[in-house]
Amino acid sequence: MTTLTNTSKLFRVILGLFLIIYALNQFLHFIPFTYGEMPENTKDFIDAVAVYLPYLYIFEILIGLLLVFNKWTPFVLIVLFPLTISFLIFNLTNNDLSKTWTALIIAILNIFLLINYKKKYIPLFS
Question: What does the alpha-carbon distance between residue 69 and residue 90 come to, in Å, rounded to a whole number?
């Protein structure tokens, strides 16, 4: 049981740090990153939601901090799950599977942690 707990702590901190670094990079641009060529409908979507993206990145920083400091973790994981799925779907439908590794990592970490905290969610489904 200790190994699972240590793995869970490690994955929780990795997920939190990943979210914080990714969101801070959108503001500070300390890691060079390009989205490359995107389909026209993807560019249109990004242009349509661009005004809301800074709020999303602030939300990601907040979620990442809560995960790193282990505050409200079961709640944060449930809130993060729809964002994770939408991030994964967006990357998978962008027609470039080589750039989906970040979304896959986040999805795997989030699903593992949700499964690890499943006892906390039992009251939601009873």
Answer: 29
Alpha helices in the chain (DSSP H): 2-28, 40-49, 53-68, 73-92, 101-116, 118-121
- pTM score over 0.90: no
Check if the beta carbon of residue 17 is closer than 8 Å to that of residue 68: yes
Given the structure tokens 């793995």, which residue do they identify? 7
Smallest Cα–Cα separation from 62: which of 23, 98, 32, 101? 23
Determine the Cα–Cα distance for residues 95 and 24; give it in Å rounded to an integer: 26
Q: What is the pLDDT of residues 21-70, one digit of tens each?
A: 999 999 998 888 666 677 788 788 888 998 999 999 999 999 999 999 99
Q: What is the pLDDT of residues 80-100, one digit of tens each?
A: 999 999 989 988 887 677 778
Element (H, E) at 124: none
In the block, tokens 């896959």 appear at 104
